Amino acid sequence: MAQDTLLERPEIASSAEAAGARALPANLEAEAAFLGAVLIDNRVVEDLAAPIRPEHFHAPIHARIFERVLTLIDRNATASPVTLKPYFEGDELLKELGGTTYLAQLTQDGTGLLAARDLAQQIYDLALLRELISVGRGLVEEAFDTSQEVEPMKQIERAEASLYAVAEGAITANEASKFSAATTKALSLIQLAINAGGGISGKTTGLTSVNEKVGGLHDSDLIILAGRPGMGKTSLATNIAFNCADRLLRDRRDGIEESIGAGVAFFSLEMSADQLATRILAEQAQISSEALRMGKISRDDFQKLAIASQKLAELPLFIDDTPALTIAGLRTRARRLKRKHEIGLIVVDYLQLLQGSGRANDNRVNEISEISRGLKTLAKELEVPVIALSQLSRAVEQRDDKRPMLSDLRESGSIEQDADMVWFVYREDYYVAAKEPKRPTEADDQAIHEQHAQWAAQMEQVYGLAELIVAKQRHGSTGKVRLKFEPRITRFSDLAEDMRASDYD
């Protein structure tokens, strides 16, 4: 039979490898039977559980046949031994198997139709096993090679990345994708935006005004969220993380499959997990964070906390508060969370607390550049948005107008270069509060009373208002969004419509 001929050919069948002379796992009979089923009934490829592709076939001729079959089906043409014949008449490998008559031989035994899904799954599983063997051999060879620099942690990181690719079935992750595939994905995002009511094509921030400005958080994007200490950048990041995870939870309960929410991985290098949890509890129960920390709450407040904690118990929000993480370590942990929990958003608080490779000849600017590139690579690799918080230089404090600019990003211009969006958090009431004049007493003269009254009027005008300055956006225009900030419970929220009028000035 033709299948027997295949098994006799070493360049087509599983080759015996030098290490242990063991053949790679493959089932050429299953490949032939599956192809026969597809050629008999093209609809077989529409009902497959495994995402089978040409490269999953072990025999190169089988891979070429299946690739041509998919091309014909994509053109709404019928794929059969007759329609395939013109494409393989000059194929040298097929000539040695009897020429184009081999195509007809594939369809002689139609038993593959009875178990096409099982055959496809086995072909896919064996392909993953072969890829695992390849990763393992590469890891062993690299570990044995001490002719170059000995960097076991980098080898571990590369092995993690390779294993993640296998787990995702991305055997050819580095190959270029067809433009048609990219446009199909773009259309699905547009459809998601329409279904969400318009204005958002990515993951939600939970803030309508921000979603309208940036269109949501887009997969593969690196978003830098920066601000001076006290501006509330951690609070905003925590709010967005909660909003996104909560939206996914609510959509799941309502049976909505295409959610604009997502599971969130929050890497907190500054605050502990319990401190972050306290912030979220305070926001949801609307109780002062300071009162919670000090235990100064009433029985009613405690009841609110209990209700809020029950609500948050199922929240798909994962907090990793490991200190002094390297960028390699963060990427490894993020891959695991993606694999185990299907996270769709990553938050890093904050960028400057991450560590690079630690080479002695590197300075801090190079290290920050390595970290920002690593975060962008992570966003693309996992196809999720990454929000990285960042510090700003003290140059902001030296200006009269303390609104941040891109040049204020601390330590490296590569942060701006690698980012798809750069957001700045600015609260004028923070600076106005710092300029409070002496509180007047009855003994003070009128000028001191007037001075404090002017300050109080200014403070009343700006208190509780914040600006999210979109200083860079690859997908759209820059500008600012005005938000409400409640410092008592560290929560950002949308302003009323009439107060948002100057958002895009």
Task: Describe how the helices and strands are arranged.
Elements: H1 2-8, H2 28-40, H3 60-74, H4 81-88, H5 92-95, H6 101-106, H7 116-144, H8 152-167, H9 179-195, H10 208-214, E1 222-226, H11 233-253, E2 263-268, H12 273-285, H13 289-294, H14 299-312, E3 317-320, H15 327-341, E4 343-349, H16 364-382, E5 386-390, H17 414-418, E6 421-426, H18 428-434, H19 446-462, E7 465-473, E8 479-486, E9 491-494
Parallel strand pairs: 1-5, 1-6, 2-3, 2-4, 4-5
Antiparallel strand pairs: 6-7, 7-8, 8-9
Helix pairs in contact: 2-3, 2-7, 7-8, 8-15, 11-12, 12-14, 15-16, 18-19
In words, what does this structure look like?
With 505 residues, this protein is an alpha/beta fold. The chain folds into two domains: 2-175, DNAb Helicase, Chain A (Orthogonal Bundle), CATH 1.10.860; 200-422, 3-Layer(aba) Sandwich (Rossmann fold), CATH 3.40.50.300. 47% of the residues lie in helices and 11% in strands. It contains 19 helices and nine strands. It has helices at 2-8, 28-40, 60-74, 81-88, 92-95, 101-106, 116-144, 152-167, 179-195, 208-214, 233-253, 273-285, 289-294, 299-312, 327-341, 364-382, 414-418, 428-434, 446-462; strands spanning 222-226, 263-268, 317-320, 343-349, 386-390, 421-426, 465-473, 479-486, 491-494. The protein has a nine-stranded mixed β-sheet, sandwiched between helices. β4 (343-349), α16 (364-382) and β5 form a beta-alpha-beta unit. α2 crosses α7 (116-144), α12 packs across α14 and α15 (327-341) runs parallel beside α16. The longest helix is centred in the N-terminal third of the chain and has 29 residues, at 116-144. The radius of gyration is 29 Å and the shape is elongated. The termini are far apart. Mean pLDDT is 79; it is low at 1-5, 7-20 and 170-180.
